Each structure stands twice: as C-alpha cells, then as structure tokens.
Amino acid sequence: MKFFIDTANLAQIKEAHDLGVLDGVTTNPSLMHKEGIKGHENIIKHYKTICEMVPQGDISAEVVATEFDAIIKEGQELAAIHPNIVVKVPMIKDGVKAIKWFTDHQIRTNCTLVFSAGQAILAAKAGAAYVSPFIGRIDDSGWDGSELIGQIAHIFNIQGYQTQILAASIRSALHITKCAELGAHVVTAPLEPILGLLKHPLTDIGLAKFLADAKAE
Ligand code: E4P
Question: Taking the domain 2-215, which CATH number applies?
C-alpha cells in the first residue's frame, strides 16, 4: 500500500518525505485555504513547489470548476504543471464526463468525494486512475467508513478494474492499518496518523530498558 500525505503544508510534506515512506501528496481547496494559498498564480506556484519536493510521487490537484467545459480547461492547466500531477475531479455528473475525457486524452484523474460503491464503480468505468472514498467523513456520519474500502476492493478485484483505491479522510493510525488490511492501494493521511503508526507503549518501555541495561555497570 502506498502512503500519500493529505496536506498543502510544506513543512509537513517535508517531514513525511524525510521519513522515507512518502509516495505522493493529495490536496484540496480547503487544505490550500488552511495554508493561506490564495489566487490562481499562487496556487499553481504552490503545486509546482510540492511537485519538486516529492519528485517520486503523484500529486493530486483539485479542480474547483463544476461544469464540463470549465473542468476540462482547469484540469488541462493543472496537468500542464508537472507530469506527476493527477487532476482531482468531484463525483458529479459533469465530473464523471470529464474523467472520461481526461482518460481519453492521457490525463490521469483522482475522483474525489466518493461515499458509495456505486460512485466508485462509475469512476472506475470512466477510467479514473484513483478513486477516493472518504472514510473519516462516513464514520463521522455514523456509518463504518472502513467497510466501504473492503466493498470497493472486492468489486474492483472481481471486475478487474485498474482504478486504484485511494482511501481518504483518514483520522487515525488505526484507519491506516484497516485500509491496508481491506485492500486499499493507497492511503492519504495527515502527518499525525502517519506518525501515529510509530507509537506503541511497549516499544517505549522496551527501549528504555535496553538503554538502561546498556549503561549498567
Ligand atoms: C482527500 O483527498 C481529501 O483531501 C481528504 O482526505 C479529506 O479529508 P477530511 O475529511 O479530513 O477533510
């Protein structure tokens, strides 16, 4: 399973990259806003910087257009920034049409805001490179988001869809482990859940004892 970081924060991208386990980055308009990245030119510049910082991986850049022609125009502009850019398109009717258009024109897409297996099937049929089920937001609404990952993985497997499952809206280290267990190809998480994977109290206790014994007379 690949690890993407879900942020537009350059310091956090660097920290995950320096850990040596980073395979890519996802962003969205809310994450860009959180970092104070505003205005077309600044947004394009910020994507360029991220692409240079993480040359080994795919970088999802989201369109804000919701009408077919405008999605195509915006997506083409984003795709032109760097070969690693994947155009993130929302799961709406014009979005699905645009994903098919981008697929036919060799532009890779990430279908975002996916909350059901039916939506994932539609994105795969349109040729999306990635489909992003938002498991944390499903959990927040009182359903089990992880179950959706397992369901999509099963469907994609038996149908032979090439679209990769990019588990998104990750809230915890446990979410990451669950996604790996259920067959997600990629997980995109904020830095905290990624670093959360490091933690176990027995590791801390064991290390303290080893260090103490190493110093003992
Ligand atoms: C996916 O690519 C989105 O950027 C993200 O995972 C949304 O997560 P949130 O529910 O924490 O906003």
Answer: 3.20.20.70
